[in-house]
Amino acid sequence: MANGFEEFEPIFGKANAEWESNSSSSSSSSFDETPFLPFLFHIHALDIYSLRIHVTDFHSYTWEAKRSIEQLQDMRDGIGVGGSWVEFVAYLVESFKSDNVKLVVKTAKSQNSSSDHGATSAKLIAHKSKGMPRISISLEKLMESTASDAMANLSLGLFKAFRSKNNAAVKEEQQQWNHLTTDSSTEQAKSDSTQNHLDAALLLKRQKLQKLSMSDKALPAAKVSNPDPSVSAKLESPKKPFVEKSSGQDIRSTKVGNRAVPAYRRAKTRGAVLEDTEDGQ
């Protein structure tokens, strides 16, 4: 934008209107107490070499000013803003985007009477902050059709600016939403992958435990169905002779011993011997 206003963004704002102070009390008394309607202003590039300013209350007053690059450069020198052209334009934009913008309205008196004839001219004044250089632009009053055109142009420009900002906000919100959705999908994919790994590890562990359990249950059956001949011989060899001896010879010997020497028979034998001895006597 060093050589023109190709990239100049329109500026919209509200100007605080006030009557210009006058030394004559009679000329200012009739208007000083008259309230203003709210004023809006619109600054935009008329072409790449000039700016146009519109100020209106959409009712009684509409003002206009045009400034070329040469006129703005003279203004820069007059108010004492140093730096490059780009820096001056940036300062101008910041000043009119601030809250320090006011519209000073001037009245005029008839030559033949002291009566006032309403607002005849105005100045749009702005500065970036307190103590900084003031930018003052003189305005011309528009009438009838030209005023209507200015109001229509301001309204259309305001609508375009609103739609542009709204679309930008919606686009930014959509991008953020897409970013969050992508992040959420990525995190979900990571979570699913981790869960799948855990499930696979758990399934493998269960399968191993099942195999070990089945092996433990099958081990005794395998020993019974397929005995080791040497172990079987060692386990069974002492049992068979013991069973045969206990069931045969030992039992018989016990029975024979009991029959040979019964206690009651030994007593009777002793008695018989005694009886035989008494009879003999």
TrEMBL record:
Residue ranges with Polar residues bias: 175-194
A GO term from the CC aspect: ribonucleoprotein complex
Organism domain of life: Eukaryota
Alphabetically ordered keywords of this record: Ribonucleoprotein
Keyword Ribosomal protein: no
Region of interest: Disordered: 173-194, 217-259
PANTHER family for the chain: U2 SMALL NUCLEAR RIBONUCLEOPROTEIN AUXILIARY FACTOR-LIKE PROTEIN
Protein name in the entry: U2 small nuclear ribonucleoprotein auxiliary factor-like protein
